[in-house]
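note to self: dont lose this again. the chain is below, predicted strucutre after it. 329 aa total, dont forget to put it in the shared folder this time
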Amino acid sequence: MVSILNKRHNAIEQYIESTLLVHPHLAKHGDFPIIYHRFHDEKTIPILSGGGSGHEPAHIGYVGDGMLTATVYGELFTPPKAADILEALHLLDKGKGVFVIIKNFDEDLREFQQAIHQARKEGHDIRYIVSHDDISVDTKKQFQMRHRGLAGTILLHKIIGTASRHGYHLKELERLALSVATEIATIGFATQAPYLPKAALPLFDLEENQISYGIGIHGEEGYKIVPFISSEHLAVEIINKLQIKFHWKDKDDFILLVNNLGTTTDLEQGIFLHDIYQLLELEGLNVPFIKTGRFMTSLDMTGISVTLCYLKEKEWLTYLKEPTTAFAW
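---
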């Protein structure tokens, strides 16, 4: 498997440097793995998120007006270190506190919570939300729901970031985030597992013409492997799982995010989106907002994830539609 790299040890740095060249509103904080919005309005509450590399454009692509104020990144599929997260909190807090969005993975939680604990001991007001939108199940743990943080996290970035721009205080952002996070669900599939750079084998076994449902963004295999039949069959499996989560009623309003996990073609993604939307129409649902593209990837995985967010409050839709300078939105 060929990866277009120079040396693996500095691949992330080179990616960051090229991104900064193209997007001048972004800047790097010294030698730290922190990218921040250089034109952030200091009258508003800063929003921080981050995670391991390999999910590009997440999370650097969501730094800008109306989304994240900064992101802190780690090595490939590895969360940032607590010391770097703490430095980001120091950088951002100008006296109003910081709101943090964390994806629900054990290692991410450990590093972020350690940094938040230290920052609070120093007197900083830090609030956070744990994104847990994954509704796939773990077959090794009696089919318990995984609750990992997946592409639905991006909806939190946008809604919370825009609410901050509207003048929400820290406690108001915390209440909003708790309300939104519980209404987001994501599930996906892969037709090809990702390869680590210069690796000879993929991260899990998947034969030609097979589908793995419920995959993760770090190359974790899913809960079920079946032969591929058609895009329509893929869509039916995904919608069935989402319906179990939401128990929706006729005329319910939902936000739809269809995320390319890496190397699925635009043609395939468009066909699949068409099938998903038709099924939602048949269910009698209203879908006033649709986003499709590469939002949170898993290196070169071939696959798609589907996120639905129940539109409990109309203002969420307003916030999603507002412009942002974050380039990946």
